[in-house]
Design brief:
With about 240 residues, this protein is of the alpha/beta class. The protein is about 25% helix and about 25% strand. The strands form three sheets. A six-stranded mixed beta sheet has the order 4-5-6-7-9-8, with helices on one face. The relative contact order is 0.13. The protein binds fe (ii) ion. The site of fe (ii) ion has 6 residues, from loops.
């Protein structure tokens, strides 16, 4: 089993008991052994208390992605072009209220020639009706994430970053009430290079030669998350480092 799923198994139920969240959102783009999200893991994690998955630049890495992405509670990055498989956003009803979850991909230092997350959000917000809106901005550059968060301040309830795997200590409530953190951080190996083996990371940086990811295994783990209270505007970092 991957280190990410091992860390999830080790900490999730306790954290769930402590914080008692109504809804759990997982960025699952590396959950199937670093490579996208599989149908099997999606179904298993829904049974274990996860409600919604967001993805990122690995959303289309698996061969079976059209089938996987057709599942109801998976939001793929919304700013890919027309005709892309999967849901532009997920609607989730809880206790008579509607939450909309949107996943966006950044454009700075990212590979795919996608649409602007800024204009995509304008388009989506013109048509979405919801009690709460949560945005996962999956991006490399903190400047892009923070700028998007200010652009959406007061228009969505929360903008939380993913993709760098490194949790940031900048959790804040923006001036018009939107909750923000540049990156939620990862669930997985503590000493890996964002999940990949340290040995491999050093070799890659020394030689410059690309390699298929080999995960860091059998070491200590880390579990990072963000707890949000969208009614009381509270944001709290959860950061376990073994
Ligand atoms: Fe990513």
């Amino acid at each position: 089993m991957s280190e990410g799923r091992k860390a999830f198994d080790r900490y999730f139920q306790n954290i769930k008991q402590e914080y008692k969240p109504n809804i759990v959102i997982v960025n699952g783009e590396n959950i199937a052994d670093t490579n996208g999200l599989s149908e099997e893991i999606y179904k298993d994690y829904l049974k274990r208390g996860v409600n919604i998955f967001t993805l990122g630049n690995h959303a289309f890495s698996r061969r079976d992605y059209p089938e996987v992405l057709s599942n109801k509670y998976i939001a793929r990055p919304a700013n890919y072009g027309q005709g892309t498989s999967g849901n532009e956003y997920v609607e989730y009803n809880y206790n008579g209220k509607k939450l909309v979850v949107i996943n966006l991909l950044g454009r700075i230092f990212m590979r795919d020639p996608i649409d602007s997350p800024f204009s995509k959000m304008d388009d989506l917000l013109a048509n979405i009706e919801a009690d709460y809106i949560f945005v996962d901005i999956h991006a490399e550059a903190t400047s892009e994430k923070l700028t998007l968060a200010h652009y959406l301040d007061g228009r969505v309830n929360a903008v939380i970053g993913t993709h760098t795997h490194v949790p940031t200590a900048d959790s804040m409530v923006l001036p018009k009430g939107t909750l923000y953190q540049s990156d939620a951080g990862m669930v997985g190996a503590k000493y890996g290079i964002i999940g990949a083996s340290v040995k491999q990371g050093i070799r890659k940086f020394k030689t410059g030669v690309p390699e298929r990811i080999q995960p860091e295994i059998d070491g200590p783990l880390q579990f990072n998350a963000v707890f949000l209270d969208l009614d009381q505007n509270i944001i709290k970092r959860i950061n376990i480092m073994e």
